[in-house]
Prior knowledge:
- The chain is 41% helix and 12% strand.
- By secondary structure, the chain is of the alpha/beta class.
- The protein has a single domain, classed as Undecaprenyl pyrophosphate synthetase.
- Helix 4 links the parallel strand 3 and strand 4.
- Helix 1 packs across helix 2, helix 2 runs parallel beside helix 3 (68-91) and helix 3 (68-91) packs parallel to helix 4.
- The protein is globular and about 55 Å long.
Amino acid sequence: MTTPRIPRHIAIIMDGNGRWAKQRMLPRYAGHHAGVETVRQVVSHCTQQGVEVLTLFAFSSENWRRPAQEVSWLMELFITALQREINKLHKNQVQLRIIGDRSAFPTKLQELIVQSEELTRNNTGLTLVIAANYGGRWDIVKTAKHLAWQIEQGQLNSEDITESLFASQMSLADLPEPDLFIRTGGEKRVSNFLLWQLAYTEMYFTDTLWPDFNKEQFMLAMESFASRQRRFGRTGDQVEEVEKRGSPEGPKEVCLRLEGGGKPLKNHIDLGLSNA
Length: 276
């Protein structure tokens, strides 16, 4: 049996906070507060497993449509969470990044984001990316506008635009693309999250609500990923041959299929999925 492998980059839609609170006859903000604790735990799990990047969808560009009171709570929670957690993240060598259009946020939050990113900029552990006021379409349009401006300025010819160049101008351009996408809460869609970056990502959906997404649930997702053969357009036989040789080839480095370089899952839970 091959050694279980871990994803280099995990992206998560943290869905179900409101329903979690409703089931307990609590106000919606109680669910969001409970969700912050789950974030702490998942950051810890990723660090223990050797995951390089964790991207969390905290607030979409569509979330402004929610009731004004809830949006206000979410902004306050964002500020409070940063104030309480940033020193712990820094101590644990976590680098924090925020992607999305932050111009719509309160000035206090914008300033806190800048301070937090600067504090953790040189950290060498897990890269924690928070997508806030972010949308996949916004990301693509922003990039297209920037490239169009470069053409207008004579800095670029339209013939120079390639998939690689386009990708280099997008959010997360300097990070590996997500290997594993997780959505909690039972919905089975990507909801305008990292539309470009998720092209070859393995999808994992669970009915578990985000505040209940514990270590066992996290490991189930990791086991599911480890059981899959990532082909990137190749045949299964080609992938197996490259795995045997352990060498990269092709325009999309085949070694990226071996995300994590074959590192074993720590605290591995044998769920009978590895041979699936």
